[in-house]
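Cross-check.
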Amino acid sequence: MEAAVFHLLEFSPSHKVQTVHAVLLLVVYLAALMGNLLIFMLTVLDARLQTPMYFFLRNLSFLDFCYISTTVPKSIVNSFTHDSSISVSGCALQVFFIIDLGFTEMAILTSMACDRYVAICQPLHYAAIMEHGACVKMVALSWLSGVVSGLTHVAAMFSLPFCGSNQVHQFFCDVPQLLSLLDSKVIINEIRVIVFITCLVIICFALITLSYVYIFSTIMRIPSKEARSKTFSTCIPHLVVVMLFLTSGSVAYVKPVSSSPSFVDLLLPVFYTIVPPTLNPIIYSLRNRDIKVALGRQCVRETD
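Predicted model, tokenized:
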């Protein structure tokens, strides 16, 4: 059967509970948008934040702004209207942006790890290596690789016939759920694309791991305990973001899809689609003195 529309998972059969769910999700969504927009604007407006680290953070904030907007607004609208349907074209767009923005985020997190490696392990060469042109190329390559991954994935998946049920057991068009609706006889092309993208993710993870092996090795050789602690604290936010995003995403995509998803199956996608874009502004602002000082300067400027 070729699906004309898909039906996303409803949070509850009760209209009242669905409305409460929509309101809570809307609050989270607005908090994520405001947090990421705040960091984006600060890193654009404040002259002291025009460094490679904040250039990558600016792109990460903009990316998270787009990423959470791919899935959450549709879920909110569905809950308010009590209509779980999504068109095939709408579903294809969701898949494209999820893969595109998800891989771009992984690539930018890798670039941020490389930036921290150069800053800590090769500080004398930092200005030469991480000059603006090189940073722009790294970010452009990250976005381009995400677009190529998204287009390849959508072309492979939506050129195949869907069969059986058109019920997607998730609040958005999640790739593992859609794979379970494909005819197993013609799924080989999609599997090849998944293997290719997985290899790219493994390369990113290997580069991040290698960077932090060298970073921690360098930090441990710093004689001053205070300097060691300060240097280590600059790496913590990035590590938290990487581990949260990569771990939840990997488990969700590797775990076999069940015809009757458990609570864990429903919760996992939240940790790589909603939690990172919502927590990233908090993680990077609360532990970052430069961001807090820049915010204070902007507030003083507004009141003058």
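The domain at 5-303 is CATH 1.20.1070.10 (Rhopdopsin 7-helix transmembrane proteins). The chain has one domain: 5-303. Passed to J.P. for a second look.
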